[in-house]
């Protein structure tokens, strides 16, 4: 359980500026392109189909420079999950934070402020994150706090522009939340493959965010 101890005791940067400087000094950008598979979910009865999404040719260094819009929010990813799925979520967070891009993840067990109201922490986590991973399991569907956070994310980005990332595990397609029917989902069969799909989807959104920012400045 060494990785678990490192996860819970991972030192947090004292400021966003320290994160900016550490990433800006990096000299090993990731591959210029990768792909993300996702499952079609236009209706709960639709058979699963995968399609590739080519990432834009923007390196990890580009999304981490000091003036990147990535730093406008405290976190790159907020993981919405039930208490019973904590072990899987810890593995996912460890994977994302261990990537060359050092994705900043909000993990409620680790990052919530002691003494704060649950509803305040959930809303702040959504508002201060670029992307939201919804780990939809039987526990998620039965947890009212998970539903609440899902609705907060949808209210924050109602057009589903890549920020909300539903991940289905051990849930039948007919039970896929109706609120998410217009959003493609990742079906978790192989954990390692799904982790990479989540990473690629977050990376794709951050790349597009940087590109949009650059175009506005031109």
Automatic annotation (TrEMBL):
GO MF annotation terms: Toll-like receptor 2 binding; Toll-like receptor 4 binding
* InterPro entries on file: TIR_dom, Tol-interleuk_rcpt_adapt_Tirap, Toll_tir_struct_dom_sf
Task: Locate the compositionally biased regions of type Basic residues.
Answer: 1-12
Q: Tell me the segments the record calls region Disordered.
A: 1-51
Query: What GO terms in the biological process aspect are recorded for it?
Result: positive regulation of canonical NF-kappaB signal transduction; positive regulation of chemokine (C-X-C motif) ligand 2 production; positive regulation of tumor necrosis factor production; toll-like receptor 4 signaling pathway
Q: In what ranges is there compositional bias, type Low complexity?
A: 13-51
Q: Which SMART domains match?
A: TIR (SM00255)
Q: What top-level branch of life does the organism fall under? A: Eukaryota
Specify the signal sequence span. none
Please give an example of a GO cellular component term from this record: cytoplasm
> Record's Pfam families?
TIR_2
TIR domain ranges (all copies): 73-202
PANTHER family, A to Z: TIRAP, TOLL_INTERLEUKIN-1 RECEPTOR DOMAIN-CONTAINING ADAPTER PROTEIN
Protein name (record)? TIRAP protein
**Native source organism of the sequence:** Sylvietta virens
